[in-house]
From TrEMBL:
Keyword Hydrolase: yes
Organism, as annotated: Brassica campestris (Field mustard)
The protein, known as: Sialate O-acetylesterase domain-containing protein
Name of one Pfam family that matches: SASA
Keyword Transport on entry: no
Length: 248
């Protein structure tokens, strides 16, 4: 979810870098904001998670593509990036640092922006394909995570759009994908990233794939909550939390 589109290994310098290419679908817009690591609202721009996932090289993800496609239906869109790459679902359980930090950021987003939660965008799981215990427990942990998050944000029907993995870091990809595709929770829609083109590392989606994924997530979001494009139905700030992403 943090985005590795356009990230590559610069063999001349032996470092991982981002190519800096921002497709038009991911352009900045004064009506699209993001909550910084310092809990301040700024105009959103790629890489969206640059100050959140600080130990990784970030590139293009699906968040800006998503936001640009829905912003005309809202007054303003607030993105709340929360993703940290390479993490397991066990690290996102209630009581763990990442979970509590996400809830804190989501609540601060509404308190400071005066907006309302619209959706959670969730794309995670590659690290859970390595160990059979993590993979087999993925569905239970995922359902608990979604239920805990809705409870703590006091939004029992909060729309959640999650992504079924395109690839995994280990041999249990099919187990994790099955869990993602079969959560069977109300107002949780899953889009399947399988088949989208990958970067040369064979693990992360290309920039164009991230753009396409954002479009797929919009379709899934609107299937939960149909919003006519003819008028802006929501005044004020609408908050999206990216996970990991919240949409306000």
């Amino acid at each position: 979810m943090a985005g590795r589109g356009g990230v590559y290994n610069d063999s001349t310098k032996n470092i991982i870098v981002w190519d800096g290419v921002i497709p038009p679908e991911c352009r900045s817009n004064p009506s699209i904001l993001h909550l910084t690591a310092k809990l301040e609202w700024e105009e959103a721009k790629e890489p969206l998670h640059a100050d959140i996932d600080v130990n990784k090289t970030n590139g293009v993800g699906p968040g800006m593509s998503f936001a640009n496609l829905v912003v005309n239906r809202f007054d303003k869109v607030g993105l709340v990036p929360c993703s940290v790459g390479g993490t397991k679902l066990s690290q996102w359980q209630k009581g763990e640092f990442l979970y509590e930090e996400t809830v804190k950021r989501a609540k601060e987003a509404v308190a400071s922006g005066g907006g309302s939660y619209q959706a959670v965008l969730w794309y995670q799981g590659e690290s859970d394909t390595v160990d059979m215990v993590d993979a087999s427990d993925y569905k239970r942990r995922l359902i608990k995570f979604f239920n805990d998050l809705r409870s703590d944000l006091q939004h029992p029907n909060l729309p959640i759009v999650q992504v079924a993995l395109a690839t995994g870091a280990g041999p249990y990809l099919d187990v994790v994908r099955k869990a993602q595709l079969e959560t069977d929770l109300e107002n949780v829609n899953c889009v399947d990233a399988m088949g989208l083109p990958l970067e040369p590392d064979g693990l992360h989606l290309t920039t164009s794939s991230q753009v396409r994924l954002g479009q797929m997530m919009v379709d899934a979001f609107l299937a939960i909550r149909p919003i006519p494009s003819s008028a802006k139905l929501f005044s004020g700030l609408s908050v999206l939390v990216l996970f990991p992403l919240f949409l306000l």
